[in-house]
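Friendly challenge for the regulars: who can give me the structure tokens for this chain first? No prize, just bragging rights.
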Amino acid sequence: MGPDSLGGERPPPLETYRRKRDPDRTPEPFGGRPSGGRLFVVQKHAARRLHYDLRLEIDGVLKSWAVPRGPSGHVEDKRLAVLVEDHPVEYGDFEGVIPPGNYGAGAVIVWDHGWYRSANPEEPLAQLARGTLEVEIFGYKMRGRWTLARMAGGEGRDWLLLKKADGAALPPGAADLTERYPQSVLSGLTVEQMADRAGHLAAVRARVDAMGPRRGPVDARAQRFALATRAETAFADPAWLYEIKYDGVRVLAERRGDRVTLHGRGGDTTSRYPEIVRALEALAIDRFLIDGEIVTLDESGRPRFQRLQPRMGLTDSRDIALAARQRPAIGVFFDCLELEERDLRRLPLTDRKECLRMLVPALGPVRYGDHVVGEGVAFYEAACAQGLEGTVAKKARAPYPAGRTRDWIKIKCQRRQAFAIGGYTEPQGTRAHFGALHLGVYEGPPDAPRLVYVSKVGTGFDGAGLAALRDRLRPLARATPPFDEGAIPRGRGHHWVEPRLACEVRFTEWTEEGGLRQPTFIRVLEGHDPRACRRESEEPTAAEPSPIPEPAAPSGPPAAAPPAERRLQPTNLRKVLWPLEGYTKADLLDYYERIAPWMLPYLRDRPLVLTRYPDGIAGKSFYQKDAPEFTPAWVRTERIYSRDTARDIAYLVGDDVEMLRYVANSAALLIHCWASRVPSLERPDWLVLDLDPKGAPFTDVVTVALALRRILDDLDLPSYVKTSGATGLHILVPLGARYTYEQARTFARLLATLGVEATPEISTVARPIRDRGGKVYIDFGQNGYGQTIVAPFSVRPLPGAPASCPLEWREVTPRLDPTRFTMKTMVARFEKMADPLRAVLDGGVDIVAAIERLQARVAGGGVSGGDAPPASGRTRGRSRPPRA
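First reply, four minutes later:
Bragging rights claimed.
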């Protein structure tokens, strides 16, 4: 046995744990499979004495402390934490009753669950060895920075657990976490209810039966959603309940024994949200139908539809599993239609919510959607102040309605509503695919509605969204406008479509002419009938409850902790990174701040790999994939499983300018990025051919690049080019996340082979330098999963601080000098011209059609190559949609 990291001899992993337990007599897990993660869990354990067990995944096991009084969320409130034996990682999900006669006999619930990271640059195991562990916890109840400190004496088993001062700390006088949240975050049970599950379920049935519901299940497939009517102003009335309006995907969640089904407004969505399904399967009651919203939260705990939207189009089970792990959703439920095969729909809302509260926990991966009573105005103002979508008012004594109702009233903090899409305009300037959408609403009787033109909306789109929507609109083309009346645009540049799609638009107000002021596109509404798009301001609510003066602050769900400070405080700005030029870290920070508008579109949602030079380009460097444990909370990281290391890697993701500043402050002089984004990691957005000279003259690189361009032109494939920042060129072909990496690599190999056939004297696909013979290496190998290229606009750790620069094809000539594109010249260059590479992020090519064209042309005499210049200087910026 080797020395124990906490002092003394270290026994084999989990030996002490297993020695105390008999697998034939206790339901506790006996595994030991390390996950390579940073699991955090607190279990409430009613053993001989009630206590809480804090567990942190370290070195492949759960390091565990028994905390008799439980964790305190008040700053510096010290709690004794006694170090106990290590537990297997699988123990983190254990709930149940350890039978009498066994070690630790009694009920166990998962009181809190999540992940953690070190708040100290030192590894957690080393911190434990010296007796002070500083962590940042991301649980449902415990949040922020915490410290475990070993006490003197007691054979090293006695530690103290205390909360550090931050935005997640409880205010003085507030009820502590253990008092506020007694339930499990998984089953929804208290430890007392877990000890007597049968008695608890009997009590639930008795309480529900006392409400007088009808017996029998509810047919979820036939059940219509209750939909709220819109009102323009908030109101206060003691006969109404007020809830948060969540910005997510509406579902009816049904459980029948072991089977869970999520019914969305557009159909079955069960396979899309496996983490919600698992959470519903963990609830103590196994027969129910509940109404709620699936959401994802931002760093401040607010629902953000934009974070959920990338998941809505996923169909591949691997992509879905990856998205669920990297950006898990939560289910917030606010109504209960059936419980234990009792039909609750005719009961008052207050009774239905009481039943719901008996089913789901207050916090957890699925949770109870709380409310306030009567204080509608104050609650609405608080919701808007926190940046929420709005509130929903519901009559407290009303039954569950089917369809649109005035018993539910929605009050949005901004005006948003659905519009029918009736056409689009030609793109202008650098915009691709289309310029703006033509919008309309239906008016008149339901049996003979007419579509009235309202407005155009041309903002709120991203490149991928433009391409995808354009592809959906083209098959709906018609020759004339679908609108019956209104200020319908005339003249050239307008394309009309059948109004079969609806979209949601945000705007400030209706104009007197019936149009929209400052409209912004939000999303396409899947499964929404365009004929249901009506002018919502023409539906004034009939509710006229009398307001009450100066209502008290709402007492609903606890407000989210204020967001962490996102402004980086740079360090050591005078540090010289390029000695010959005298360029400092301050110069690097200034460059990334100024180039950010052009660079960020290539980095958003992409894992990054950095090369850091803490002592400048003349000093040592190191390669960084994994974000360090002390990475600030506001820096976005995504955990991605590495096939090479068989563990999760916490990649940095460069979504905003502050992230670029953070990278620059770490002296990362070289930024590489994946070709795919986090929501679709298995499918790259581009194919790259990396032209690497390694001793060949740069004029040969240019000749090979132009030959490859002619090949791509002959195959009717768009291509874009940039410098590597060193001596090579990168040729990129847009794929639009339509193909796997394996398919992209295979096609890239074919293109590289064609390039060598066209320029055999100066190019090769031989990877070893000794086998290249001084030729330009056409590297197609960077098209593998997890492979990266130098990000566009990234600087290089070379004299002069050159940068990877997007080029127009007309610039690729023997006179091209990549060294003139530097940290000092790039911003001025792109202030005067559009980015010629930007179109690689839009659309995608049809590889199958390209191969068919290649086969046909080979049969007819070959694909062009050689040294002749291309026939024209044009750049192909459009691509065909893939074949069906």
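The two ends are 62 Å apart (CA to CA). The domain at 199-412 is CATH 3.30.470.30 (D-amino Acid Aminotransferase; Chain A, domain 1). Your move, everyone else.
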